[in-house]
Specification:
By secondary structure, this protein is an all-alpha fold. It has two domains: 14-48, no CATH class; 53-113, DNA polymerase, domain 1, CATH 1.10.150. It is built from eight helices and no strands. Helix 4 (53-63) runs antiparallel to helix 5 (68-78). The longest helix is centred in the last third of the chain and has 12 residues, at 102-113.
Length: 115
């Protein structure tokens, strides 16, 4: 017979652990640092899906430092790109339909894939 471990209190679910990390994180970069090595990407993606259009705009602005990123964020917001759409964007849509320069689109697409 296999012994079952006994917990003094109920173990935290993965989603609960992510929620606790998010409460303590002060920046988006901090969240990614916390999640990068912890195997919690799936749960983080579930949180990204809930992002508002404004939160997606903030994310796009955070990808780069040049003024062009403000413009790209505006394009995303004008097109109503929220978290659910963001995680499913393909490169061709970013370039062809949104009119973002391919160089910026590659950088942005890579950042989206890291979410």
């Amino acid at each position: 017979m296999i012994a079952t471990p006994q917990f003094k209190s109920a173990p935290l679910s993965s989603l609960t652990l992510v929620a606790e990390c998010l409460k303590e994180a002060k920046s988006e970069a901090g969240i990614m640092d916390l999640l990068e090595g912890s195997g919690q990407r799936r749960q983080h993606k579930a949180i990204v899906v809930e992002w508002s259009v404004e939160k997606v705009g903030d994310f796009v602005r955070s990808v780069g430092k040049s003024a062009a990123w403000d413009n790209h964020a505006s394009i995303f917001m004008e097109n109503g790109i929220d978290g659910a759409v963001l995680v499913n964007l393909i490169m061709e849509y970013i370039v062809d339909d949104m009119g973002i320069n391919r160089m910026f689109a590659r950088t942005l697409h890579a950042a989206i894939r890291r979410l």
